[in-house]
Each structure stands twice: as structure tokens, then as C-alpha cells.
Amino acid sequence: MNIILFGPPGAGKGTQAELIINKYNLPHLSTGNIFRAAIKNQTPLGQKVTAILDAGDLVPDQLTIDLVAEELKLDKYSNGAVFDGFPRTVSQAEALDKLLAVKGEKVDAFISLDVEEEELVKRILSRGQGRSDDTEEGIKNRLKVYHDETAPVQAYYESHDQAFEISGIGTIEEIHNRIVDVLSRSSSK
Ligand code: AMP
């Protein structure tokens, strides 16, 4: 099963992804985590993307798509994945469809977490993870990039009839239960 957790920065994608991977025994594919690990380990990829992440801009599509293509070749993704933070542009969404088609798979559910902007800023500033992009400037830019480049991804999936939107407001458990509910509906579609 391939699940995309979608939403603006601060919507809770990472938290909810952790719960879903445990429940469904699926691997987590977070491009943000991969980039941060590369930066920490000072790999060539890390050096290329450090300034981009700090500014809250998007890593170029081709670099991101190539990375996901390589990642999806690993055995651990043989039963699907929970995608978190990918796809973030329509080009990435199109590329993912193709990558999955090669494996005889598809996106089984696209779940968008809906949280209003004021709440997002509050959450990011209070999550205190010490991320280098969690500054007021970084957050502002990430939200702008989300509206300009990432939000259109939702329309892409809506036209594919696999999209669900749920409220991202509530306790972690309430939101998790909404996701589980949506997944039980998508598997019976
Ligand atoms: P995240 O952990 O998903 O919030 O991602 C953190 C940062 O990594 C983003 O602000 C981007 O700079 C970069 N990033 C993560 N995923 C992608 C992606 N799919 N496309 C482009 N840039 C990405």
C-alpha cells in the first residue's frame, strides 16, 4: 500500500506517518529526513542542499525525484511506503506515478491534513526540534512555497480520485483515527 501524507509544514505529517508505519508495518519515506541526514553526515548531497533547506526553498525536482527513484529500489519498499513530504510539486507527483507504475503499483491513498495557517506557525515555533529552518523567516518562506508550488499537488490527486482531506486539528490520536478511517474506506474503493 502506498500512502501519501500531505499538508503544509507543521500539519503533523511526520507524527502521523510514524503512527501509520507502525500500524500497517510500512516503511517511512520522508525526503526531508533523508536531506537532513545527508546534511548531518556531510555527504555530497548534503552539501548541495544545506542552503536550500535553511532558506525553506525546495530542492530541485530532478534531484529529489532521482533520490526517491533510488530509494524505492530498496527491498524494504516492496510492499509500499508512507510518503511524507513527497511529492511537493506536480512534476514530482507525475514522476511518482511513473515510478510506482514500473513496480506495478499506484498511489492507494492521498491524505491531506487541513490546518489553518495561524495554528501552523504556532506549532512550528513551539515544536522546538532545533531545526535550522524553524525560524520566523524560514517558516514564512516554507508556507509561501507550500501555497505556490505544493498546494497544486492536491488538485492533481483529486482528479485521480484517490484524495481525502481530513481535519488536522485535534489530539494526535483523534487525527490518527481519522486517517485509519480514511484508509479503510480507500481499500474498499
Ligand atoms: P520536511 O521535513 O518535509 O518539512 O522538509 C524539509 C525541507 O526539505 C523542505 O523545506 C525542503 O527544503 C526540503 N524538501 C523535503 N522534501 C522535499 C521535496 N519533496 N521536494 C523538494 N524539497 C524538499
Structure explained in plain terms:
The protein has 189 residues and is of the alpha/beta class. 57% of the residues lie in helices and 12% in strands. Strands 2-3-1-4-5 form a 5-stranded parallel β-sheet. α4 packs parallel to α5 (90-102) and α6 crosses α7. The longest helix is centred in the last third of the chain and has 16 residues, at 172-187. The two termini are 13 Å apart. The model has no long low-confidence stretch (mean pLDDT 94). The structure holds adenosine monophosphate (AMP). Adenosine monophosphate binds next to α2 and α3.
Give the topology.
Blueprint: E1 2-6, H1 13-24, E2 28-30, H2 31-40, H3 44-55, H4 61-71, E3 81-84, H5 90-102, E4 109-114, H6 117-127, H7 136-150, H8 152-158, E5 163-167, H9 172-187
Parallel strand pairs: 1-3, 1-4, 2-3, 4-5
The protein binds adenosine monophosphate.
